[in-house]
Design brief:
The protein is an alpha/beta fold. The protein contains ten helices and ten strands. It has a five-stranded mixed β-sheet, with helices on both faces. Strands 5-7-8-9-6 form a five-stranded mixed β-sheet.
Length: about 290
Amino acid sequence: MKLYRICLLFAFLLGSFPCFPKNGITASQVVEEIKKHLTCSWNKETVDTFKSGNPDDKITGIAVCMFPDMAALKKAVENGCNLIIVHEPTFYSHLDKTDALQNDPVYRKKIEYINEHKLIIFRFHDHWHSTVPDGIYQGMVEKLGWQKNQTDQSMLYFRFNDQTLESFARQLQEKLNGSQLRVVGDPQMHITNVALAVGASGSDAHIKLLNNDFTEVLVAGESAEWETYEYVLDASMMGMKKAAIFTGHISSEEAGMEYCAKWLKTFIPNVPILYIGNGSSYWPVQKPLKL
């Protein structure tokens, strides 16, 4: 009986991975496996497409990152990865349109490097957010260690022990090492209820989260300074218990792509999968001041 169970387990484990050909798999085959392991259907209208390279080329390794900036591309090449799965655009606009960039020196140098190394770049944005749970939020909540603070399964609302906004911001800064937080609101305000909005979800979404009876602090990626920043500032000046902490776009989503790399390893066998962190795009002129 024990041998029988072992055989069943072995058969299950073998069946849990796709049967890729011995001579390797292509980038398009990897994407097809990704589609199979999502909980959402694949949309025809999406930014989740190949941005460079030949999808039918065999892959030598997979690099996963937020932005395919030059540092990330070079690290992928150094580690023998020719398929790069990214969350954000390659060519500086949401739709990666390059018509106006054909004579741009930055674009030309970047595309030359991509072509020289036959890099295949695939964007994985819409469906990584649409699957359940949202892959980006899942990775961020795990990185922040906020699982125990969730009020429901939405990964939007969290409850903490009573503390000041300053204390909460300092703890968040430690967890998001490298991020230069921007805080709006009274640093001595006592808070317990926090809402999370990763990336650049927009002021409408931010204000909707702020304008309810629960949220005292919004932790967001980024926003135009004349929008959510001013809304929270006015609310604070009017004595309302509202504040916001802006982490920067990369810091608010990067852990979601680190989680993506781990997720890919559960169903893409025998292929090196590397997570590449981008870190902040800018550096501060001076050390962060006290809040």
